[in-house]
Amino acid sequence: MNKYDVVIIGAATSGAYFARKMAKLGYSVKMVEKLSPEKLGTRMDIFHVSETDLKTFEMPAVKSGDPEWAFSFTDNHFSSPSNKYAIPTTAETVGLHMHEYVALMVKLAVEAGAEIEYSASFREFIFENGVICGIRCETGNGIEEIYAGTVVDCSGSAAAARCALPNGYGVENFRLTDEDMFYVILRYARFNEKPINTFWLNTKSWYAPFSMNGTEKIIGTGATGSYERAQRDADKLDAATGDSFEQIRIEKGTTPYRRPPYSFVADNFIAAGDAACLTKPDCGEGVTSSMVMMDIAAKVLDAALKNGDTSKKALWSINREYNRVQGADFSLVRAFLTKVVNCVKDEEIEYCFENEIILNSKFLNNGKITPSDILKTLGGIVSAISKKGISKKTMAGVLGGIKLALELRQHYLAFPAAPDGFEKWCAKSEKLWSKVGKIQ
Length: 440
Description:
The protein is of the alpha/beta class.
C-alpha cells in the first residue's frame, strides 16, 4: 500500500514549497502532478517576486546568470490615467522564469525527502468511515491509490480536490466562475524608447521588465470576466500612452480574484494556494501570499501529525492564525478596492493622484491599506467634494466601501477559535460579502 504522512496535489510553487517544508520536518511526502516535467510551470514565462519575500520565505536564492533568474529592478511608478501624475515606489523586485524556478523548487523538495509523480491526475478521494484517507489518481499505468494522513490541494485555480469534496465536508467546494477570475494578457514588447516601469489603476495595467534590456517590457493588462474585457483595457492603455513598440509574443492566463473559502481545513484535508484563492487583492499575485498561509499550515500540521490527529478540530488554528496574520487585512483591501474601482471614474482617479487622496507614496510603498489609512481619506474626500473633484455619488460608494472594509476586517479578526461558532460566523460573512459585490 502507498501510504504517506502527506500527499500534495500539484507540484508548482505552492505544492513544491509545502512539500519541502514538510519533508524537512521528517514526514513522508508525495506530490502528485498532472503535468510532465517539461510542461510544469510553462503557462507563463515570467513572474515577479519582491526581494523581501524571497528572504522571508527562504525561497531558493538565484542570481544573474542562473537559468531561473531573469532580472531585478527597483524603479517602479503608479501613474494617473493621463500620466500627468506618477508616484514612485522603491521595493526591489526580482523577475524569475517560472518553469525553471518551479523545477528548482521541486528538485529541492525531492532532495529534502519528498517524492513526486508526474503525469498523474487527481480523480477522487478515498474515504474510510466517512473521512478522507487518501486519493485515487490516473497515471499512464491506470488508476493508482495513494493513502495519506492528510491531503493538501495545491492544484491551482481548478481546485481539483477541493471542488470534489462532498457537500458539508467542511471546506466550500465552489467552482470559480468567469467573474471570480482575473483574466490576464501579457504582451512581451520591445519599445523604441526606454519606458518607465508603471502601474495604471484605471485600466489594471502595467509595464514591467522581462529582461535587463531597458527597452524590453511586459505590457500586462487584467480584467475580471473575460479576455475581451482585458483587451479593451489594453487598447485603452495604448491610446493613453501613445508608446511605440514591437510586439514579440503574447501570453494569456488567469488567477483567482474572489474571497477564499471561509475555512481551509476539514478532516485530513487542507486547501492552499490558488485552490484556496489565496491571491493578493491589490495585484492578483499568489505565489508568496499563499506561502504565508502555508507556513502556518506546516506548523499546525506538524503538531497534528505528532499527536496522531489531523481532524478538522486539530487543524482549525490554521484558519484563525491565517486570518490574524493576513486574511483580515486582505478582506479589508479586497472590499475597499472593489467598491472604489466600481464607482470611481478616471477623472476622479486623476484628482486623487494630484491631491494624494489614498494614492500616496506611503500607502503605495507600504503595499497595504490599514484602517487608519482609510479613515484618513475621509477628510480628503470631503474636501474633494467641495472642490468638485469627486461626485457625491462616488463619495457614497467610497464611504460604503470604507464601512464594509473595516467591518469585514474586524469580523475576520474575530474568527471563531473552534468549529462550534463557525456557522454563525459564516452567516454574517455572507451578508457582508454580498454587499461588496464583484470587481468590474
